[in-house]
Amino acid sequence: MTLPALLVAVAIALSLVMAGAWLIALRSGQSGWVDAIWSFATGGAGVAMALAPVGGWHQPTSRQLIVAALAALWALRLGSHIVGRTIKGGDDPRYAQLRRDWGADFGGRLFWFLQIQAASALLLALTIAIAAHNPAPRLRPGDVLGMAILAVAIGGEAIADHQLTRFRADKASKGRICDIGLWGYSRHPNYFFEWLGWLAYAAIAIDLTGAYPWGWIALCGPAFMYWLLVHVSGIPPLEAHMLRSRGDAFREYQRRVNAFWPGPQTRPSSIKTPGNSSR
User: Fold this and answer.
1) Are the beta carbons of 66 and 143 closer than 8 angstroms?
2) Together in a domain, 178 and 206
3) What are the angstrom distances between the C-alpha of 159 and each of 95, 106, 138, 181, 260?
4) Which pLDDT tens digit goes with each residue over 200-224?
5) Domain final residue pick, 79, 112, 133
6) C-alpha span between 61 and 137 (Å, rounded)
7) Is the pLDDT reported for residue 277 higher than 60?
8) Quick one: pLDDT band at residue 181, thresholds 50, 70, 90?
9) Which candidate, 97, 79, 94, places its Cα nearest to that of 194?
10) Could you give the CA distance from residue 208 to residue 204 in angstroms, rounded to a whole number?
């Protein structure tokens, strides 16, 4: 299969999957399913493109198998976490705000919004494929580095998610801002580790000898994910929601803890505020 044919096939598949996610979100009233489906779809597309015999049939190389396994592990971990969170009920606050902002146009605008997400999934799957198809004959230090980066990223994100889940389940945490564990070093450690994971594919893809110039394109993955999480659909809408619901307590948290990059707190917190949910 040629690369253009593979890209077209994967693009169509992702578009159809996200159209299905649109229907599920509208009928269930729970937009959290969108992110779960997107995670599984992105990982599935990455696995398919990593293992695809581009340029002619051949057995997958060790690098292709490793990269495919890394993409599958990432998707299963993240997607399963979001599924578990969504099953518990409630709508994602980011999508809930879009529902309020778009009003009667929500259904139509959400469809095209999710088609943009399908396009972003294609870009990220291409990043995975570029890493997998690095033609270097043997595994290199970059491959080992990439595996180590993704292991740290998946582990760190899982720890952050677990700490937040445990905090929310504690009745004593009602009305407080979660600043325990990794959440005391970054306001969004899960986003930081999500971004870090995409650096793994760049480490595997880039060949400093110049033998594989296409490998540098893999930097688009972490660059795009940083832009998405920090400036578009990650931190901005979530923090806007937290400011509406938690007010001064969250503003104080913003003052002493970095938004994205982990760093030390500037001072301890003692502020509490009444509320019905915790973060």
Assistant:
1) yes
2) yes
3) 25, 34, 33, 9, 16
4) 999 999 999 999 999 999 999 999 9
5) 133
6) 9
7) no
8) very high
9) 79
10) 11
pLDDT digits (tens, 9 = 90+) for 107-138: 999 999 999 999 999 999 999 999 999 999 99
Per the structure, how many domains does the chain have?
A: 2
Q: Which structural domain, as residue segments, surrounds residue 99?
A: 1-133
Query: 230 near 245, Cβ under 8 Å?
Result: no
Domain boundary pick from 133, 163, 191: 133
Whole-number pLDDT of residue 89: 75
Q: Is the pTM of this model over 0.85?
A: yes
Question: Stretch 171-193: mean pLDDT, rounded?
Answer: 93
Residues 81 and 204 in one domain: no
